[in-house]
Every structure is written in C-alpha cells, then in structure tokens.
C-alpha cells in the first residue's frame, strides 16, 4: 500500500485534478487534500481535507505527523499576473512554502517532494524557440524570479541534504474542471468558456503571441510519472522542461471555429502581454523524455474537442 500523501494547494487548478487522480490511484483515505480555503463540493466530498496555510511550518508539521505523511505535493503559489500586483506577498508565499517543505524533508519527516516550476523561469534573453533545458535564465517577473530561486534551492537541498525533490516547468495549463487564477496563460481556458457562453472572446494577449501550453491530463500524467520514477533516473533536481503543444490566440480561435464556425476573437493586450513576451514560444523537453519516459498525448485540436465537449455538459 502507498504511504500517505499530502497535497498543499489542493483547491487550485492543478491541485484539484491531481487530488482526484492520486485518490483514484492510491485510495481516497491515503491522499490528504489541504488548502487555505475550501474547494469544490466534488473535491471536499472525495476524501480527507485540512485547512492549511502553506506558509505556516508548524501547522504543516502537525498535519504531516497526524497522518504520517510520506510525500508532499506543494501546489500553492501566486501566479505571474497576480504576483506583479503583489510582489512581496508572492515572494513570501512562493518561497516560504517551499522552504517549509524542503526543511521537513531535510529533517526526514517526509521522504519525497513535488514542487512545480514554470516556463516563467526563462526571460527575455533566453532563446525563444525550442528553449533548452539549461540555458540563459534571466526572468523579468516576480513569479519567474521566485520560481528560478526555488529551482536553485531544490537542487541545493538535494545535493547538500539528499532531499528527494522533483519538479517540472509547467507550460500554460488548460483544463475544464477548475479555472486557473492569476496567470498569463489563463486566456487559453477563458476562451473556451466564452466561446460557449457568448460566441466571442477578447484576448488579453496579442494575436501572434505563441506560448508553450499543455492539456491538464498530460500535466497530471507527467507529474505522477515523475514522482513514480526510480530516484536514480532523476538527474535534474532543479526542474525539468516539459512540452505539450505551442499555439497563439489565433490558433485556438481557428481550432474553436471547427466546432463553432461563427466564433469571433478580438485583441486588447494588457500588462500580461509584456510577461508573455518574455517567455519562450516552444520548449525542448528531451531530458524528460530520455530520463523518465515523458511523452505528451494531446495536441490543440484534441484539447479543443475535450474542452468544448466537457464544458457543454
Ligand atoms: C502563469 O501564466 O503564470 C502560469 C505559468 C505559465 O506558470 N500558468
């Protein structure tokens, strides 16, 4: 039987789906969901839940001891667009939560950690096309700075203290179960909701802004597969590049038009354009493919099919 797992930030976009999937795989009682607020009824009713502040070390330690937690997935974070508005709050949340979990692992109170990084670790001086695993990283956003620092700390805790920490650099994630909150890639979820509701969408990113994206099922599969891989296969202890598909707002609109021919898109770029312009447009994820067998399954048209079908229901 798998040892108990704690998910911190379980009510967010990734956390919700990760909780369902891990509960399916390891049994509901083995997966403790936690967040600073309660989540959807479906999530709250699917297994144990604790209200938990990711920045409160002793509260996390109490939950870890109480449930005899072995693995922690730390999904709580402030995303790129919101972090530009609240830089110090973002820094405190994104860094203190990570230190809390790394220190619990250093003290051998837990044995494995998953922590999400992001394509935001890259910056305007990074090669934009097929961005390599190791390259220039000069993030120009608060969120990107916190994720890049986090990566350095993960690698440091692994090398110095033997902490088994694993991470991927998520691209923009597209899902129908939970809305994203405060990200720059959120347009790629909103557009499907608006296509069904009003038949049109005003994009806050410009028409030819190409970004790396991924359907949530692929992201969850990547996360669990990385955590299931033998430790010796995991050579990268900062964070792995992870790619699914790349597209622009126009590409999504064209894909939606195959189902809703009258769909209209317009463009009104706001402050998030500058953030998007500093990020890669495509990612080289060969290290993840070679070291732990990563392979994406969903392209843009398959994502559109899934999104429209499920949102309609
Ligand atoms: C964001 O837009 O901030 C996130 C991310 C790419 O990490 N979706």
Number of helices: 12
Please identify the top-level CATH class of the largest domain.
Alpha Beta
CATH superfamily of the largest domain: NAD(P)-binding Rossmann-like Domain
Reported for the largest beta sheet, the result is: 6 strands, parallel
How much of the sequence is in beta strands?
A: 15-25%
Spatial order of the strands forming the largest sheet: 3-2-1-4-5-7
Shape: globular
Question: What does it look like?
Answer:
The chain is an alpha/beta fold. It has two domains: 5-171 and 232-241, Rossmann fold (3-Layer(aba) Sandwich); 172-213 and 244-312, UDP-galactose 4-epimerase, domain 1. It is built from twelve helices and 14 strands. It has a six-stranded parallel sheet with strand order 3-2-1-4-5-7, sandwiched between helices. Strands 6-8-12 form a three-stranded parallel sheet. β2 (31-35), α2 (41-44) and β3 (49-51) form a beta-alpha-beta unit. α1 crosses α8 and α5 (87-106) runs parallel beside α6 (142-161). The protein is globular and about 55 Å long. The model has no long low-confidence stretch (mean pLDDT 98). Residues 79-80, 118-120, 143, 170, 172, 183-185 line the site of 2-amino-3-ketobutyric acid. This is NAD-dependent epimerase/dehydratase family protein. Belongs to the NAD(P)-dependent epimerase/dehydratase family. Residues 5-242 form the NAD-dependent epimerase/dehydratase domain.
């Amino acid at each position: 039987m798998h040892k108990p797992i704690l998910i911190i930030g379980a009510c967010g976009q990734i956390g919700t789906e990760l909780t369902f999937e891990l509960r399916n795989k390891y049994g509901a009682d083995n997966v403790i969901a936690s967040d600073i607020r309660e989540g959807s009824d479906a999530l709250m009713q699917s297994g144990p839940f604790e209200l938990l502040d990711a920045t409160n070390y002793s509260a996390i330690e109490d939950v870890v001891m109480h449930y005899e937690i072995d693995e922690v997935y730390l999904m709580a974070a402030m995303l790129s667009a919101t972090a530009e508005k609240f830089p110090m709050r973002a820094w405190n949340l994104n860094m203190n939560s990570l230190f809390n979990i790394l220190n619990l692992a250093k003290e051998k109170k837990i044995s494995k950690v998953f922590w999400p990084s992001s394509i935001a670790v890259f910056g305007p001086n990074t090669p934009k096309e097929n961005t390599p695993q190791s390259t220039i990283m000069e993030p120009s956003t608060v969120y990107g700075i916190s994720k890049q620092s986090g990566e350095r700390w993960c690698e440091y805790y692994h090398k110095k203290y033997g902490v088994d920490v694993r991470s991927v650099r998520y691209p923009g994630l597209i899902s129908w179960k939970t809305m994203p909150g405060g990200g720059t890639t959120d347009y790629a979820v909103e557009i499907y909701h608006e296509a069904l509701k009003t038949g049109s969408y005003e994009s806050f990113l410009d028409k030819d802004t190409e970004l790396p994206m991924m359907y949530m099922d692929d992201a969850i599969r990547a996360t669990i597969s990385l955590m299931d891989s033998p430790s010796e296969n995991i050579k990268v202890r900062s964070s792995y590049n992870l790619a699914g598909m790349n597209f622009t707002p126009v590409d999504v609109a064209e894909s939606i038009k195959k189902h809703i021919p009258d769909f209209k898109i317009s463009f009104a770029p706001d402050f998030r354009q500058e953030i998007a312009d500093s990020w890669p447009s495509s990612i080289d994820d060969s290290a993840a493919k070679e070291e732990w067998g990563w392979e994406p399954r969903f392209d843009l048209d398959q994502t559109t099919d899934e999104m429209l079908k499920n949102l309609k229901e």
